[in-house]
Amino acid sequence: MTIGIAAVRLSKIVMTGGLALFAFLVTLGNITDPASNWAFVQHVLAMDTVFPDSTLTWRAITDPTVQLAAYVAIILAEALTCLAFAAATWAMAAKFRATKAEFQRAKSLTAIGVLLGFGLWFIGFMGIGGEWFAMWQSAIWNGQTAAFQFYVTILGVGIYVFLDTDGEPETAGTPR
């Protein structure tokens, strides 16, 4: 393995590990400081800080049981995202010196993390929170900028990890 290929593989492992760490810290924050994040979920779902004349407030969910279920689902999605990226990091690290094909198979777990992270922060926060619950109308409880930063970073790392740059070309034959 050349130094260049080793550096590329290492960068993919570190970036995926960084996403695992990030998702872990977000999950940990939600578990260890539940009041702050619980308030966010409650206000977004209750739509109590959207424009006063908004006609979308019929969508509001004020039932504390449903709000709590949504909060638990968010934390679970964050934890699963963390686990997927951690497993991908571990798999790639274990195949660091393996063949190109083996390393590429190890990268496949990264797709699960990308799917979960994109699902949570784009579909969940941007789509459902931002549009269905009109989070964009709230000056106080608007997490769209943070969600955008999260899912774009996840997509960027995912695209980089899946680039075919981490091994020698397969030598099935030499075209002439």
Task: Describe this structure in a few short sentences.
The protein is mainly alpha-helical and 176 residues long.
What does this structure look like?
By secondary structure, this protein is mostly helical. The chain has one domain. Helices cover 72% and strands 0% of the residues. It contains five helices and no strands. The longest helix has 33 residues. The two termini are 26 Å apart.
Mean pLDDT: 93
Order of helices and strands: HHHHH
The backbone outline, from C-alpha atoms, is elongated
Please state the structural category: mainly alpha
Number of strands: 0
Number of discrete helical segments: 5
Oligomer: single chain
The radius of gyration is 20 Å
Based on the model shown, name its key terms:
single chain; 176 residues; mainly alpha; elongated
Fold blueprint:
Layout (H helix, E strand, L loop, with lengths): L2 H30 L1 H13 L17 H31 L5 H33 L11 H19 L14
Helix pairs in contact: 1-2, 1-3, 1-5, 2-3, 3-4, 4-5
